[in-house]
Amino acid sequence: MIKTVRTKYGILEGVESNAGFGLFRGVPYAAPPVGELRWRPPQPPVPWEGVRKCDNYGPICPQRDRWTGKPDVDDFGHPYIHIPNYPYPPVMDEDCLYLNIYTPAKSPDDKLPVMMYIHGGGLQEWYGNDYEYCGDGFARHGCVLVTINYRLNVFGYYVHPELAAESGVNASGNYGLLDQIQALKWIYENIAGFGGDPENITIFGQSGGGRAVLGICCSPLAEGLVKHASIQSAGGVRTVFGDVGREEMEQRGIRFMKSLGCGSIAEMRALPWQKIRDAYIDMLKEGGFRSSFNMYTDGWALPIGIDECVIKGLNQDVDYIIGCTVDEGANEKQSMFSSMFPSIRLFGRLQLKNGKKPPYMYVFDRPQPGGDNVGTPHSSDNRYLFGTLDGTWRPYEKCDWELSEIMQSYWSNFARTGNPNGPGLPEWEPFTESKLVMRLAVDGCAMHDFDKDGKITKIENELLGGSK
What we know:
- With 468 residues, the protein is of the alpha/beta class.
- Strands 3-4-6-8-7-9-10-11-12-13-14 form an eleven-stranded mixed beta sheet, with helices on both faces. It has a three-stranded mixed beta sheet with strand order 1-2-5, with no helix packed on it.
- Helix 10 packs across helix 13 (455-466).
- Helices cover 29% and strands 16% of the residues.
C-alpha cells in the first residue's frame, strides 16, 4: 500500500481505507478561494514544509444546510446509516477545494487507470466526501479513484460585469467548472506518485456532475487532460439544464449584489460567507432552482454553448458512456427529466454524424426496494456504481449486489481501455442508428429497445430539428 507521496507542492501521508487501500483525504488541489480569491479562477495550492497528514476530509462548499437538527435521518426521514470513518454531518466552509484519492497501487510504477468523479446536486449542493462515492469498490477493480469538492451555487457560478472587467478575459462565473479543471490538472501533475497513469484519466459524474463532465469536454482549457468520459443522468443535447444567456446571468448578479446592500465586488468579498450563503438561499426561495447561478456560456471557459459545441462536433473526441435511469424519460413516466433519454440519443446521433467515436449508451432499470414505490428515480444508480448499497436503509438483495458488481466492472474496464466490455460480462455494443442500448437490470443486463412504439424517436427528432 502506498502511504507517503511527494507531490509538486509537498509530501502527503495517507491512511488505510475501510477496505485496506491507500486513502489520502483532504488533499488541497488549489489555494483557498477566500478573501481576494473569492470569485476568481482557482490558484495553485500553497506549498508546505514537512509531511501533511491526510486523515481528514476537507470542508464542503457552503450550501443549504440540510443536516441541522437531524443528523440521524436522511431527507426522507429514514435512519441515516453511519459508516465508520465517514464523518457526518460534513463540515461546511468556503475553503473547500480539496480532493480525496483511493489507490490500490503497490508502487508508483503501477500506472493504473485514474477516475475523477464529479458529484451531482445541480451544481448547487452536495459534496464528494459522502460515503455514497467511496472509492474502495473501484480500487478493488484496479483503478485509482479521486473524488473532489468544488465551488457551488453563488460561490462557484456568480456572474457580474465588474468580475468580467477585472478578469483579463472578459468573463465571470463558471468558477466551479474551473475548479474541476484545476483538479484535473493537479491529478495530471501528481497522480503518478499514487500509482496512477496521468495519460489515462476518466472523468465521470451524475446529474449536475454529469453536465460538468460534458462542460469539461467542451472547454478548451481542459484539452488533452481527459481520455474517457462518462455522463450519467445529465442528458446530452437540449437537456433540462439549458443554458441561460450572459445578459440574464449578469442581471441576476446585479440584483444579488443589491440584495446584500453592496455597491461593489470589493464590498462583497469582505462579507462573511455565511451572509452570502443566506442571501443565496433567499433567492432560491423566491425563484427556485432555475433562478440560481449555474454553468453557462461565458465566452472563455465555454466559448460556445455546450449544445452548440456538440452539434458542431467541437467537443473532445474521447470515449463516452452516457445514460440515465429508466424513469428519466426511457418509459412513460413523466417528470422534470422526461426528455432526458431522447436528449441522450440525440448526443449519440450527433457523435456519429460528426465522425466521432460512438458512445456506449445505457438505461438503469431497477425499481428500488423498500415499499415506497419510487420506481427507478434520479440518482438511484449511484450506490450501484460505487458498490455502496450498505450505506442506505433500503433492503437491497443479493441480485442488487450482483448488478453493482457488473456495473463496477463495466466502468472500470471503460477507464482502462475506453471499452466497457470484458470477460464474463454481457456484450455492450456501442451506439449505432439502431434503437438498442444497454439495459442494466437485476433480471439480466442486455441490449434492449426502449422505443418500440417510436415515441422517443419522435421527441428525439423534434430536438434534432430544434438544433439546426
